[in-house]
Amino acid sequence: MLARALIGLLALAALPASAQQVTLKVQHFLPPPSPAHAQFIKPWADALTAESGGRIKVEIFAAMALGGRPPQLYDQVKDGVADVVWTLPGYTPGRFPKSEVFELPFMAASATATAQATQEFYEKHLRDEFKDVHVLVMHAHAPGSFFTVSKAVMSVDDLKGLKIRAPTRVINDALKALGATPVGMPVPELPQALSRGVVDGATIPFEVALPLKAHEMVKHVTEVPGARGFYTSVFLYAMNKAKYDGLPADLKKVIDSNSGMALARKVGKIWDDVEKPGRDAAAAAKVQFHTMPPAEVAKMQAATQPVIDAWIKDMDGKGANGKMLVDDARAMIAKYAK
Asked: Which of 27, 59, 156, 158 has the lowest CB atom count within 10 Å?
């Protein structure tokens, strides 16, 4: 049997590049109806199959169907458990510190602008943090809002003592600075946390509220107005390095043409566009909408500035120039927000 397997492997290796085929296992943490699955990952997979003449097959495992929990996704793709994953670097706090810059309070613009800035920032500053994988794209979602079960958030004081779900370390720090009690968890755990009273609310964008039906579990949504939103989360779409390196040149070209800045721009627009269906669903569920008054937004900015200062100091301690990273991220967002 061993001899037959060896013969098979040698025969496969002898095939011309034009005949080689590959199957990619893609794993992510949201259900199939989510925009991430239906509008981003599935079309991406279809494009690879079409452009490769059927030589690239893609199997998508939504909602962690391949096994494990969302915080394990990065290691799954690094170790080859999955060939491609979509995840948040922030699900493993402190592991990718420089990528947190876009999650600092009042940094993010639209998803389209911030996604392109995040991709450019990766290409300039983050290759060392993600050297163990082949990065396909990095992006961000549209600025998030406060979804609360029973108490409307109209001021900084209204946040005091509320247990608010947050996705990443930096956003936890920002909520703590505002007097809230941050509760970190991957977003698939949010519906159960809301229904059981583990949290009083969450910071999420409308697009993710819709597939999780979070809008059906809250009474209030408070938006934070301004050119820069209260927060966003950074996402990583990455491929196993050995899997990519082992592809023939023409299949690498197919992957490359569906990666990088062009994909960041496309994904950013998807994330901006899908805010409306989520907002409409919340309105249909009779959720009460609120807008944080400008004076309260100014208070939020002042209260969270120490979070930015602390992050800069932390980066300096790690041998990076924290202020330069913040300034560079802001400049990139401003460039794409024009």
From this structure: 59
